[in-house]
Specification:
Helix content: over 70%
Number of helices: 6
Strand content: under 5%
Shape: globular
Largest sheet: none
Oligomer: single chain
Low-confidence stretches: none
Order of helices and strands: HHHHHH
Mean pLDDT: 94
Length: 148
């Protein structure tokens, strides 16, 4: 796949992930709150550099933008290389992202509760990232099988 198609498909997957999360996060108390984890990570990262974002709405928007950009780049890797294993790459990268989101916060000094407070939240967190990867693979398949 061309780099542009990979990025566009990755953007589609990142948007799908965020739409899924944003539409469900307040539907039930046991839903993942990926946004809260992202806000904490951004806040702590900025503090290390001597910056802060005091306004909660600005912090939320900055976190959402960073999330879309980083997930676009990550999901775009699904289209790299041979397309005969497109769906395998999507499942592998989606599961890796989800498991990472659940297991890495605590070692990174972040509160794992928003994404790992119980088995349901952990499973949904992994599922969200897997869904984004599968949307990416579907878009890549629709875009065609040309080489970079």
């Amino acid at each position: 796949m061309s780099k542009m198609k990979n990025l566009l498909a990755g953007l589609g997957g990142a948007i799908a992930l965020n739409l899924l999360h944003e539409s469900l996060k307040k539907q039930h108390p046991d839903m993942p709150r990926i946004d809260l984890l992202g806000e904490e990570a951004l806040h702590k990262g900025l503090q290390c550099c001597g910056y802060t974002i005091a306004d909660p709405a600005t912090l939320y928007r900055a976190t959402l933008a960073g999330d879309i950009i980083s997930n676009t780049a990550y999901y775009s890797m699904i289209g790299r290389g041979n397309n005969s294993n497109l769906w395998t790459k999507a499942v592998t990268l989606g599961l890796a992202a989800g498991v990472g989101a659940v297991t890495l916060p605590e070692p990174l000094g972040l509160d794992p509760q928003p994404v790992a407070r119980n088995a349901r939240v952990k499973a949904l967190t992994v599922g969200y990232y897997l869904a984004g990867a599968l949307v990416t693979a579907g878009l890549l398949q629709v875009f065609g099988n040309d080489k970079p």
